[in-house]
Each structure stands twice: as C-alpha cells, then as structure tokens.
Amino acid sequence: TKLYKIANIPGDGIGKEVLPEGVKVLDKVGGLYGFSLDYTDLPWSCEYYVQTGSMMPENGIDILSKHDAIFLGAVGFPGVPDHVSLWGLLLPIRRQFDQYVNLRPIKLMPGMNTPLAKPGKIDFLIVRENTEGEYSDQGMILAEGTDEETVIQHSVFTRKGVDRLLKYGFELAQTREKKLDWATKSNGIYIAMPYWDGRAALMSKNYPDVATAQYHIDILSAHFVRDPARFDVVVASNLMGDILSDLGAACTGTIGVAPSANLNPEGKFPSMFEPVHGSAPDIYGQNIANPIGQIWSGAMMLEHLGEVEAAGAIMRAIEFVLSDETAPRTADMGGTATTQEMGDEVMARLS
Ligand code: NAD
Ligand code: IPM
Ligand code: MN
Description:
Blueprint (H helix, E strand, L loop, with lengths): L1 E10 L3 H19 L1 E7 L4 H7 L7 H6 L3 E6 L7 H15 L4 E7 L15 E7 L9 E4 L7 E4 L5 H16 L4 E6 L7 H13 L6 E6 H10 L6 E4 L1 H14 L7 E5 L7 E5 L16 H14 L2 H16 L15 H10 L3
Parallel strand pairs: 1-2, 1-3, 3-12, 5-10, 8-9, 8-10
Antiparallel strand pairs: 4-5, 4-11, 6-7, 11-12
Bound molecules: nicotinamide-adenine-dinucleotide, 3-isopropylmalic acid and manganese (II) ion.
Nicotinamide-adenine-dinucleotide binds next to helix 4.
C-alpha cells in the first residue's frame, strides 16, 4: 500500500486540540481507500521555545524536507511575542519551502448559519501570496526615543513573486468559472500596487478566456459582505489575502471551519496544510474548538498527495455533518459539542 510521510506540528493552543481530530479522520479514510500515513510528531511550539530558546531546532527545515507534506495546527501563544513565534516557525516554513500560494477556499456549506443577510451561493477561492509583500524583514527604526522617532517596514514585491502567483491564479480560474478578480490599493499605495495591476493586466493576455476585474481592497471587502456570490478566484497580496480570508471565513459562519493549503506548486518542496484560524488562547483548554478547519485542511492535503477520492470522502462527511441539524456542533456554531464529539461525528459519516 501507498505510504505518505507526514510531519505533524500541532503547535500551540487549540492547534494541539484540533490536530488529533484531523489525524484520526485521515487515518480512517486511509484505511478505507488503501493508503497509510506515517507521522512524525514534532513538538515545535511556544513551549518548545521556552525550553530551548528557539521555535524549532536548527535542522528543523531539513527534518521537514524529508516528508511528503506538513500538517500544522496553529502557532503563537501569550508569553512569547507573536513575531518571535511566527517568524521562528510558521513563516520560515512557508518561505524556505517556497510555498508561495496560500490557497484558502471560502465556501458556505449547507446547514451553516451565515451572518450575511443575502449570502447567495458562496463558493470561491482566495489565492493569497505567501512568501513576500507586506510580510517583510526589511525595515528600521530611526531617531529612536526622540520626537522624530520614525518606523519603516518595507513591502517587497518581486516580479517573479507577483507573476508566479498570478499565473497560478489564472490557471486555477481556467479550471473553474474562468473569472479572476484581484485586490490592490493602487490609489493609495502608488508604487507597489499599480505594479501589481500592471503585471495582472499583462498576465491576463495569456489567458484571454478568463474574465478579470481589479478591485481596491476596501470595496472588495464590502463586496465580500454584500455580494460574495460574484467571486470565484480572488488573488491578493500577503496581508490583503490574510485579512480577506478571515473576513470570507466569517461570512461562511465561523472561522473555525476554514482550511488552507500553503503550496509549493512545483512540488520541489513539501507543502503545508493548516486551518486558517490561530491558537485561540481564549478557548484553549476548554475542549470546545471546532476541528472542521483542521479536518478540511487534511482533505486538501490528501488532494495534493493525489488521493482525490479520499479527499472527496472527507468533504462529503463534513457536508453531511454540517447539513444535519441534529448533529453535534461546537460553540462557535451555537452548540455545546466538544472538539472530539465533532471529530467523531465526521468519522462516523465517512464511507
Ligand atoms: P485566532 O484565530 O486564534 O482566534 C480568533 C477568535 O476565533 C477567538 O475568539 C477564537 O476563540 C476563535 N476561534 C478560532 N479558531 C476557532 C475554532 N477552531 N473553533 C472555535 N473558535 C475559534 O486569532 P487571534 O486571537 O488573533 O490569534 C491567537 C494567536 O494565534 C496569536 O498568537 C496569533 O498570532 C496566532 N495565529 C496563528 C495562526 C496560524 O498558525 N496560522 C493564524 C492566526 C493567528
Ligand atoms: C494566517 C495567520 C498568519 C499570517 C500569522 C499568524 C503570521 O494569520 O495564517 O492567516 O498572517 O499568515
Ligand atoms: Mn490570518
């Protein structure tokens, strides 16, 4: 039977509660579809940082590179500054493995309560740039401690970085409704964002069958709430895509169900799969975190590994659970179920 080597990084907070739910669903579906998963459990986290002084060992990237994929919970917890934990673990993985596409499906599942008055059909993909842009390590503090104190943090967009993301977005759009929208803010950020617009317009010439529109990020956010049915593939920079993905997820009911794939599309390095949400320190330890975002991320991982049927089976089980009003629901969906009860329910409906 086929064997996939998976690096598990539960990380912090509810990452440690939801990751096991993802793993148990993956194992069951593997049994049903004739493959198995060999996990390496890695304790890299804020606790690990407190013990060792770093978020992962020096050869951490090397260890990960020997795996077919990375399955991650969440990183960051009070006690360790967020920029230390994130720039010590999550962001270096995305960068070192050139996971330049952060693919984040936004889908209103049957049975979910949305806060939107007129949701229509919500089913689109955010294609978020994941290795450069506003998340940059270039900057400085000038005249520190004086009245002239000035803080600068550059956004860095490379032609290669912008073009490869756009190319991915257009090729994806060709497999769907042939419609691509992109987010910029070229009225205000007048060097970098018109550059994006120019590259997108140029790239679109290679895909004459794909209809495109540019939106400024402010009105795009409004459309997410007022008329999300218009979207199919939405391409955005690192920060804009980050904000849009929590907004989009909230429009579909709860960020607890939203999945993501950090992809190295060329397959030169392992890709990483994790829920969109963070470590949720406010609910950690109560065993009420929604595991669906993690489980759905597991389905994206299987699809990436080529186990398309097994991925589909997980998705059907998730839809089955969410659309059944009598099924257990975690607190973010208005219920009282525990994390395990929700995971068990997905397990029970796998076939
Ligand atoms: P968060 O996503 O952790 O939590 C935001 C809110 O959503 C909280 O009220 C939380 O209880 C709720 N929530 C999140 N996931 C849920 C789930 N599965 N079920 C039910 N409710 C859920 O965002 P935050 O509070 O801004 O960040 C907390 C920490 O997580 C910070 O250290 C942050 O840097 C980190 N973070 C990490 C990632 C990641 O690892 N990819 C993503 C976002 C935030
Ligand atoms: C996410 C998170 C991360 C990001 C943070 C924790 C650095 O918010 O995965 O959405 O902004 O990419
Ligand atoms: Mn985020």
